[in-house]
Design goal:
9 strands; alpha/beta; 17 helices; about 425 residues
């Protein structure tokens, strides 16, 4: 294994000899990646001056290091700059992990700190160290990117490619659920947040054969699985609980369960789960089961963060930011369910972006925000509003906003297209 100081000196020497390699290094590294002080000084000088000229570098770092600069050049051995950058990043990550482990070990002697907090901080530090160690995306000329743009647009027009479909025709006409994006589904309690999330998750697993990971912070995993079975069977869970479900419906229930049995759905019901735990569990699931197609978090304001924050709004904003990182890290959509404030109920109006509770960074981080508005909840005497559910796309970073009017059957917890249900 190459010692850290040797790996650093080889990289610095290559930067001093080759200007293009210097530009490559300063685009991927910072001075903090270097363990040896003089290497940090040299790298900072190259980065600030955008130059590998020894005279210029020497003026910045001081004459006492001039001989070392020439010594590096004299001992220069040709090599691949990408490989040398990777080695320096690796050494940096190992140092950070070692520092975190030593800090965690020291904290173990503190009677005021519990094991869970120490473990979460250690996991967070390791994640931070290793995530920065991934290969950076290479810059591309726009002439190489444009063909990819048209390929994606053509596939969308043909209906060939849709990363995730909601299972609702009218909603799909407005909302495009893309890999690497966070889709926030927000509503007041009892309006169908979980039902809509499970509609999308169930469609992704049953119809698109995606590996779906559901983090349920509010309901036990058995309850989530029960809902999925009854939604898929189009049967009333309340009738089953009351003992009034007709016997003729049992085969339908059994068939729905058999279909779900063949899917790739993973459910975690850890209460008050921390953002770093979500990321680590997703890593483990992907190693065991393959590429994750969709992640659902129900719901955002119940999640915690391992990072230190000074207010609840800061904590929600931190979790929101880390869920965006999660979407990019696993290159899949993240369905982020969120609670709305009571303002819309008090004012008897459809929800708006300002109604997001403890919103912090939710509005900023989400690529799309969908509100559920059921006017029947505010005017139960009007028969025309029965089962009507407006799905309001209030924000879409790369698309238009609009309203998809659907049907919501509370008894079966199913969202349907107004004219026809395409879900099954």
């Amino acid at each position: 294994m190459i010692p850290a100081n040797l790996a650093e000196s080889e990289l610095i020497a290559q930067c001093l000899v080759n200007r293009n390699d210097m530009y490559e290094a300063i685009s991927q590294l910072d001075s903090c990646h270097f363990d040896v002080r003089v290497h940090r000084l040299i790298f900072d000088a190259m980065k600030s001056k955008q130059s590998n000229d020894v005279v210029i570098i020497s003026d910045v770092i001081g004459d006492e290091h001039t001989l070392y600069l020439f010594d590096l050049i004299d001992r220069y051995v040709s090599g691949n700059i990408g490989s040398r950058i990777a080695v320096v990043k690796e050494k940096y990550a190992l140092r950070k992990i070692d520092e975190a482990a030593k800090k965690a070990s020291a904290e173990c002697g503190n009677p005021d700190v519990n094991a869970e907090d120490i473990g979460n901080r250690l996991q967070s530090a390791i994640l931070e160290a290793t995530s920065g160690n991934k290969k950076a995306s290479d810059p591309e000329e726009i002439k190489l990117i444009i063909p990819k743009v048209f390929e994606k647009l053509e596939n969308i027009q043909k209906g060939v490619v849709r990363d995730i479909s909601s299972g609702l025709r009218d909603l799909d006409e407005i909302l495009y659920i893309s890999n690497g994006e966070v889709i926030c589904i927000a509503a007041r309690p009892g309006q169908g947040k979980t039902a809509l999330g499970l509609k999308i998750a169930g469609h992704a697993a049953l119809v698109q054969n995606k590996l779906v990971v559901i983090f349920s912070l509010e309901m036990p995993k058995v309850q989530i699985a029960t809902r999925l079975v009854f939604i898929n069977a189009s049967l009333s869970l309340n009738d089953c609980r009351a003992g009034t479900m007709p016997k003729k419906d049992y085969p339908k229930l059994s068939m729905a369960a058999s279909q779900l049995f063949e899917t790739n759905i993973v459910i975690d019901d850890t209460p008050a789960i921390k953002d770093v735990e979500i990321i680590n569990k997703c890593r483990k699931i992907e190693l065991q089961k393959g590429k994750i197609g969709l992640i659902m978090v129900d719901y955002l304001q119940l999640a915690k963060t391992a990072e230190k924050t000074h207010s609840r709004e800061q904590e929600v904003a931190t979790v929101s930011r880390n869920l965006k990182t999660l979407a990019k890290m696993f290159n899949c959509p993240v369905l982020e369910l969120a609670q709305l404030s009571r303002a819309m109920e008090v004012q008897n109006r459809p929800p708006q972006l300002s109604d997001l509770r403890e919103s912090g960074g939710i509005e900023q981080d989400a690529d799309a925000i969908v509100f559920i508005y059921r006017p029947e909840a505010f005017d139960s005497e009007n028969p025309e509003l029965k089962n009507v559910a407006h799905l309001i796309v209030a924000k879409q970073r790369d698309g238009s906003v609009g309203v998809a009017t659907t049907v919501y059957h509370k008894e079966t917890m199913r969202f349907l297209d107004k004219a026809k249900d395409d879900y099954g």
